[in-house]
Amino acid sequence: MGICSSQSTLPQILLLGLDNAGKTTFLYADKWDQFDPTVGFNYEEIHLRQIVHVGVWDVSGKSTLRCLWPLYYRNINFVAIVFVIDAEKEERFAEARRELQILINEEELRETAFLILFNSRFEPIFDLEELTARVGLDLFHKTIKWKAALVDLMEESEDFKLALKWLGEQITN
Ligand SMILES: Nc1nc2c(ncn2[C@@H]2O[C@H](COP(=O)(O)OP(=O)(O)OP(=O)(O)O)[C@@H](O)[C@H]2O)c(=O)[nH]1
Ligand SMILES: [Mg+2]
C-alpha cells in the first residue's frame, strides 16, 4: 500500500523508536516472536490486545532511515505516536531522547498524543520513575498529551492494559 493511499476510517497510530527497540515485536506479539529489522514499514489494522482498534504504521528505526519519519506524519493524520524504548539499553537513552525532542517540536504533531512504552523483557533495572528521569521525559511540554509505561511487549500486564486504555481515550477524545 502506498503511504498516501490509505482509505482506512480507523484511527491511525504511528509506531516509532530506535532500531531494535521492539516496535515490530509490539505489533506482531500475537503472531510470532522473532523479527528481522524492518525495511520500509509494516501496516496492520489491528485490535491491540482487544482494547483499541486502530491502523498501526510500524516504521524502521534504523538511524539512516529515520529521516523518513516526517514523510509519514506529514502525510497521515496520526491520533497518537507510540514510541518504544528498550528499557534495558541505558546507553541508548540519550539517542531516544534526541529523537523524541525532534518529534515533540514538530508542528504537525502538536495535537498528537504520545505513548512512551519502555520495553523490558527481564526484571527491569530501573523503575518507571527512574526511566522517565533518565530519558528526560520532562522535556515534554505541558501542553502535550503523553503517558509512559514500563511493560514487557510480549506479555499481558495491568500496566500494559492501562496504557492501551489511555491510548483508546486519546482516540475518542
Ligand atoms: N519484551 C520483549 N521484548 C522482546 C522479546 N523479543 C524481542 N524483544 C525486543 O525486540 C527487539 C527487536 O525487535 P524488533 O521488534 O524487531 O525491533 P524494532 O523496533 O522493530 O527494530 P527496527 O525494525 O530495526 O526499527 C529486541 O532487541 C528486544 O528488545 C520478548 O520476548 N519480550
Ligand atoms: Mg521493526
Structural description of this entry:
The chain has a six-stranded mixed sheet. The protein has helices at residues 23-27, 69-73, 93-104, 128-135, 158-172, and strands at residues 12-17, 41-48, 52-59, 78-86, 113-119, 146-151. Helix 4 links the parallel strand 5 (113-119) and strand 6. With 173 residues, it is an alpha/beta fold. The protein has a single domain (12-172), classed as Rossmann fold (3-Layer(aba) Sandwich). The protein has five helices and six strands; from the N terminus they run E-H-E-E-H-E-H-E-H-E-H. Bound molecules: guanosine-5'-triphosphate (GTP) and magnesium ion. Residues 17, 19-25, 33, 35, 37-38, 60-62, 84, 86, 119, 121, 152-154 line the site of guanosine-5'-triphosphate.
Question: Which helices and strands, and how do they pair?
Answer:
Blueprint: E1 12-17, H1 23-27, E2 41-48, E3 52-59, H2 69-73, E4 78-86, H3 93-104, E5 113-119, H4 128-135, E6 146-151, H5 158-172
Parallel strand pairs: 1-3, 1-4, 4-5, 5-6
Antiparallel strand pairs: 2-3
Magnesium ion is lined by residues 23-24, 35, 37-38, 58.
Protein name: ADP-ribosylation factor
GO molecular function: GTP binding; GTPase activity; metal ion binding
Binding site for Mg(2+): 24, 38
